[in-house]
Write a structure and sequence with these properties.
The chain is α+β, with helices and mostly antiparallel strands and about 300 residues long. The protein is built from 5 helices and 16 strands.
């Protein structure tokens, strides 16, 4: 199934991050773990009730990181899908919560743009029929709740080589163009869209707080992932990494031609592999190789607030 698996970004304070995504946006904290390569830092995963691919937004909260600066070679905007009739609810909620926002039209869709406290760019897109999809909504009325990802917009110098990887390797197809934007669609129910914003000779971005670190795409299993890796090498001269076990999925990474870090992640085993689905996100979960250091790691991590 072709689509986005997850999006990983850099944030500031972990407690502020949790408050915004769990309480203001109403996403579920589906996994509380650490950055496997920097275990003094949380890795927080938000998504729907089950933590399905296509709904997962994750953060490395590096409190003292400098702010990022948007430019080419980065994700410009991450968009969620919501019921079309929820536009008024979310506009009012953002006014009430002091969330910077704006309203525009793209590809005939109503787009409510907004930013979090770290300046990360988001949008809520009204999708007809989304009200019939399942929703995690203990703090948001179900008829208005976010359903998952709509897609991601990439800011690039030259769209063609990135488009070739989206269509030839990752299973997307071009479906529309509007000005400098080209839209590509996969077949997954969530996270099906990738928009390429071709900016030409525009300055490169600087990663930091509020920046997307990488975008992960779905592979149904190890065999599908291996086939994608082979195609990347043979047909696109990319150099994906060896497979890395991330406990909840298995991943390979590569930088696509415009310099954006892409990941291909398996759908399995999923987030319920180390705790019941009903308990997702409540306890700090560590991979086996870090478990002997639990006391040390817990002492270094900052406190978090309550989840929904």
């Amino acid at each position: 199934m072709s689509g986005i698996h997850h999006v990983t970004a850099i944030s500031g304070r972990a407690d502020r991050n949790l408050d915004f995504y769990a309480h203001t946006l109403g996403l579920r904290l589906v996994k509380k773990t650490v950055n496997f390569d920097d275990p003094g830092t949380y890795h927080l995963y938000y998504g729907d009730e089950q933590g399905q691919p296509g709904t997962i937004l994750t953060f490395f909260p590096w409190e003292h990181a400098a702010p990022g600066h948007l430019g080419v070679g980065e994700a410009q905007e991450t968009a969620f899908r919501m019921p079309a009739a929820a536009l008024g609810f979310w506009t009012h909620r953002f006014v009430e919560k002091g969330v910077p926002h704006g309203l525009e039209k793209r590809f005939g869709e109503s787009v409510l743009t907004f930013r979090d406290a770290d300046g990360m760019r988001f949008a809520l897109i009204g999708v007809p029929g989304a009200e019939g999809e399942a929703a995690w909504s203990p703090g948001i009325p179900a008829e208005h709740a976010i359903r998952g990802f709509h897609g991601v917009t990439l800011l690039v110098n030259d769209a063609a080589p990135t488009a070739a990887i989206l269509t030839d390797v990752l299973g997307f197809r071009e479906v529309a163009r509007e000005g400098a934007l080209a839209r590509y669609r996969g077949d997954a129910p969530m996270g099906a869209f990738m928009d390429l914003h071709e900016a030409g000779d525009f300055p490169r971005g600087r990663m930091g707080r509020g920046s997307v670190h990488h975008i992960a795409f779905r592979a149904v299993d190890d065999a599908a992932q291996a086939a994608m890796a082979k195609k990347l090498v043979a047909d696109h001269r990319m150099n994906p990494t060896d497979q890395k076990d991330r406990n909840y999925f298995r991943s390979i990474y590569f930088r696509e031609p415009n310099g954006i870090l892409f990941e291909i992640a398996t759908d399995q085993p999923g987030f319920a592999v180390d705790e019941p689905a009903s308990e997702l996100g409540r306890a700090l979960k560590l991979p086996g190789f870090l478990e002997p250091r639990r006391v040390e790691i817990e002492a270094r991590l900052p406190p978090l607030g309550e989840t929904v």
